[in-house]
Amino acid sequence: MKIKSLPPQDRPREKFLKHGPEFLTDSELLAIILRTGHRGENIIEISNRLINEHTLNGLFNCSLKELQNIKGIGPAKAMQLLTINEITKRRIQSQTPTKKITCAEDVFNHFHQKLKDKNEEHFYILMLNTQNIIIGEHLISKGILDASIIHPREVFRPAIRNASSKIILVHNHPSGDPTPSSEDLEINKKLKEMGDEMGIKVIDSIIIGNEKWTSKTDN
Fold first, then answer.
1. Helix (H) or strand (E) run with residue 202 in it
2. What is the mean pLDDT of residues 122-143?
3. If you average pLDDT over residues 2-22, what whole number do you get?
């Protein structure tokens, strides 16, 4: 049955306009985001199936490729879901910003929301001024960290451009275990030595796991 064939009180958009979003079910909210169905299945039916099969958390934890492999989700719908997820993370982070870094926990709090659902490693630098105030962050690489392909010039270029006096290396372990690997230690050593030569101190290297972290300064 097409959405237009449903009684107005059963159509998600009409319910939203009349009562507000809090009166809609998860499936109805998802239907408004995804907008259109396909042959044989209207958008409410698709939304019900997606939530029953994958749950909301499951959907938003999928990668772009994984979403596109789900029946009823093409490239456009997959990007819509990931965009909503990213905006939500950024909104949460903006409400509790960390301006000054005083300890490793501050770094964890700054990045945890951004990195907690990532299925691959993301390697960032956090740039600070002389008072340890955050002046920027930059994503250096995404995927398995490899000392042979992490180029110091790519790490320090944004720090130089932002006149940063010190940086913190940050990456996640999708496994949830923040214990540093031998590759992590090798990367840290190489970048610290390069930073000392360039006058940009690498003051810490933090690995983020599930609700916990490790800090090089704690080792």
1. strand 201-208
2. 92
3. 86
